[in-house]
Design brief:
Elements lengths: L3 H12 L29 E5 L2 H9 L2 H8 L4 H4 L2 H17 L3 H9 L3 E5 L7 E6 L3 H21 L7 E5 L2 E7 L2 E6 L2 E5 L2 H13 L16 H11 L9 E6 L1 H5 L1 H7 L6 H14 L4 E9 L2 E8 L29 E8 L2 H6 L1 H4 L2 H15 L7 H7 L3 E7 L16 E7 L5 H20 L2 E7 L2 E7 L21 E5 L2 E5 L2 H13 L10 E6 H9 L2 H12 L3 H16 L3 E8 L4 E8 L3
Antiparallel strand pairs: 1-2, 1-8, 2-3, 3-7, 4-5, 5-6, 6-7, 8-9, 9-10, 10-20, 11-12, 11-18, 12-13, 13-17, 14-15, 15-16, 16-17, 18-19, 19-20
Length: 593
């Protein structure tokens, strides 16, 4: 028997509500109306929705969701059996309880929903749904149990419902690991009877002072209050739609946790990619996260109560007490842009503190071997001269500079670093020329040096009048004319000469830009992506014809409709910021017009 097939019928309005709704966190509700009060302190991971109806309506009323429902290419999803059954189930509850779903959601869960876990003890969970009408909640519970019984019968299984009473509260076991109980406006669900009893104890303790179990609630944990305050700081209204509190103190003290947060750690790749972040996590026991909505912007915020203060000295390779990154490069039809702080020179100089002894020794030996192939410099000197601020950018480029059009287009891309040693460009010029000489012998690359806006561009093109390798039947090589250039203190390596010219114009017009606060920021742009997709409509139309078996005219119309929708998705930004006392990580979606 697969209980998951039908158990969701019981909790569909409670568990699926977070997928549709928005709430007011930190509202001035009395403590008795806070479902967190009925969560035992043993829980170390809590997800809370303060106002499920508001969360539902925020998503359902969003203009982009309304437009998504109208896309013909997705009608098969909206008409799927699963979704129709879900809508029928909602209609069933509306009919039997005599209220529309928004009012039902208020009555059933208007005071909030909490899903709590203890990740250390084989994953027990407790779902607390606190409504505003005890009678409606009782009717819903009875209807849900009836739905379960009917579903079990359709699956030709035997329906078993065990009933027990704990401290005057009736509970039910309807599956080997599924327990539920109701007390007035509160509905409890868990996969352990012991956890369900703990929730009942907290509820009864609130009124029965003489027979108090003494069980502490999660609201007594000081870290929870600190997490709530930390999450609200710096936000316009301080009210996330959904928020999460996670305490990983026990994991941090475990052998796996000590290995993860140790310095130096055995996994050098983790250190190189997330060294600063892991250092911040290793200096505290909890994390807070929240989903915020304001106008056309949705933000997922993650907060840690530790920042640059207390950062280990060797972490200077990933974060320093200065502005974190240069502004994002945003040329015409940009698809993706990334800016980050990474001090390669400090990474090499601090290798013995960042890496295990054996790895650091191997790394030093490898740099010495590599230096033999670097004309006029050494790899350590090259790393020290590279600077701290680096940027990457990908953009749609309409012309590739060749007469031959590739059968499949690839966006242009570039890497830009702000070097700090005046000898760095000369060393990179010698290195890249040597590399091109080796690669050019096989690829038949032709050197092309041009001067654009007073800047020398050293580039290479593939010949169009000679056959190439059989491994390139789609002429992908004509998407590339690799090159490099120097603009003030910026060194560029680009996939095409034409894109390099575009970036030269951009950097010259933005020469006064200074480093900003975030240590890392990256952003995706829907307008650039749709511009790229529109440049190769045949591939999209063919895919639509094959997947949906529609005429080519209908495929073209659907592709046009989908691209117009994608164009309105706006931007998706990720950023990490080491502040003096806190660490901020944000994912920000801003929808387009």
């Amino acid at each position: 028997m697969r209980w998951g097939t039908f158990l969701h019928r019981v909790v569909v309005l409670a568990i699926l509500a977070p997928m549709y709704a928005a709430g007011k966190l930190f509202a001035a509700d009395p403590l008795s109306n806070d479902p967190l009060r009925w969560v035992p302190r043993e829980a170390n991971l809590c997800l809370k929705i303060e106002n499920p109806r508001l969360l539902v309506e925020t998503f359902l009323h969003h203009p982009l969701y309304q437009q998504l429902r109208k896309l013909e290419a997705l009608q098969e999803i909206w008409e799927s059996i699963s979704l129709r059954r879900f809508q029928q189930l909602i209609a069933y509850y509306e009919r039997e309880l005599g209220k529309p779903w928004p009012k039902l959601l208020d009555d059933l869960a208007g005071n909030g929903i909490v899903l709590a876990f203890n990740t250390q003890n084989e994953g027990p969970f407790l779902l607390v749904v606190q409504g505003r009408d005890a009678n409606v909640l009782a009717q819903f519970k009875d209807l849900a149990l009836q739905v379960l019984e009917q579903e079990v019968g359709r699956n030709e299984a035997k329906w078993v419902r065990k009933q027990a009473t704990h401290r005057g509260v009736v509970g039910y076991q309807v599956a080997p690991e599924f327990y539920l109980a109701q007390h007035d406006q509160i509905l409890l669900l868990s996969n352990r009877d012991t956890v369900l009893k703990m929730g009942i104890d907290l509820i009864v303790d609130a009124t029965d002072k003489q027979n108090n179990s003494g069980l502490p609630s999660i609201v007594s944990a000081p870290e929870l209050a600190q997490a709530r305050r930390l999450l609200s700081e710096g936000e316009p209204d301080g009210k996330p739609l959904v928020w999460l509190y996670g305490n990983y103190g026990a994991f941090r003290q475990s052998p796996d946790g000590k290995n993860l947060f140790a310095q130096p750690r055995n996994d050098v790749v983790l250190t190189l990619l997330f060294g600063g972040w892991l250092d911040a996590m290793g200096r505290n026991d909890y994390v807070a996260a929240g989903l915020f909505h304001r106008g056309d912007t949705m933000k997922l915020a993650i907060r840690l109560p530790s920042g640059r203060e207390g950062l280990q000295p060797e972490m200077a390779a990933f974060c320093a007490g200065e502005p974190g990154s240069l502004p994002l490069l945003e040329p015409k039809q940009v698809i993706f842009s990334h800016s980050f702080y990474w001090d390669l020179g400090a990474l090499y100089d601090l290798r013995e503190k960042l890496m295990p002894a054996g790895t650091a020794k191997d790394f030093e030996s490898a740099t010495k071997q590599a230096s033999r192939f670097l004309p006029g410099t050494t790899l350590p000197d090259l790393l020290r001269g590279a600077g701290k601020y680096h940027r990457m950018v990908v953009a749609h480029q309409e012309k590739c500079g060749y007469q031959t059009e590739p059968k499949q287009r690839i966006p242009a891309f570039a890497f830009v670093t702000a070097y700090r040693d005046a000898r760095f460009p000369k060393a990179m010029d010698a290195l890249l020329r040597s590399a091109a000489l080796l690669a050019g012998a096989q690829a038949q690359l032709k050197l092309q040096e041009v001067t654009y806006q007073g800047v020398k561009i050293v580039g290479y093109r593939f010949p169009e009048d000679k056959p190439f390798l059989e491994s390139d039947p789609d002429d992908l090589r004509f998407n590339f004319s690799p090159c490099y250039a120097q603009v003030n203190d910026q060194f560029l390596v680009c996939s095409t000469i034409e894109f390099c010219q575009q970036l030269i114009d951009y950097l010259k017009s933005h020469s006064q830009e200074k480093a900003q606060s975030p240590t890392m920021q990256m952003q995706f742009y829907s307008t650039g992506l749709t511009a790229f997709l529109r440049s190769q409509p045949d591939l999209l139309e063919t895919a639509a014809v094959l997947q949906q078996a529609v005429p080519i005219e209908e495929a073209r119309r659907q592709v046009k409709e989908v691209l117009a929708y994608l164009d309105r998705l706006g931007t998706l930004k990720f950023q990490a910021d080491f502040r003096p006392k806190t660490f901020h990580w944000d994912m920000i979606w801003k929808s387009g017009p």
